[in-house]
Design a protein that fits this description.
There is one protein chain. By secondary structure, this protein is α+β, with helices and mostly antiparallel strands. The protein has three helices and four strands, in the order ααββββα. Strands 1, 2, 3 and 4 form a four-stranded antiparallel sheet that branches. β1 and β2 form a beta hairpin.
């Protein structure tokens, strides 16, 4: 009986993770990216620090930007070109004051 309960618990845990991963989008950005576009036209949208790029596809007769390229991290791009400070500053310990 204990084996059946354990197997049931494992099955429910595995299937619940699958359902969560298909819960949907948290924002309307994928739909807004295709408001003025046609099917198969390129689109992109940003969420937090990521940029998603893809093409507009019909979902229930409404166009939605479907990602077909890897997500781009926007924060990394902003900090990549930042000049580095090569001047070293000396710090005087408080004990020497």
């Amino acid at each position: 009986m204990k084996i059946i309960k354990n197997l049931s618990a494992c099955f429910l845990l595995i299937t619940s993770c699958s359902v969560i991963s298909h819960a949907g989008h948290g924002s309307s950005a994928p739909w807004q990216a295709c408001e003025e576009k046609a099917v198969n036209q390129e689109c992109s949208y940003t969420t937090h620090d990521k940029k998603a790029s893809g093409t507009c596809q019909a979902m229930n007769n409404i166009l939605m930007c479907v990602r077909n390229k890897p997500l781009e991290t926007l924060l990394d791009k902003a900090t990549q070109n930042k000049p580095t400070n090569t001047v070293k500053q000396s710090v005087t310990p408080l004990t020497n004051l």
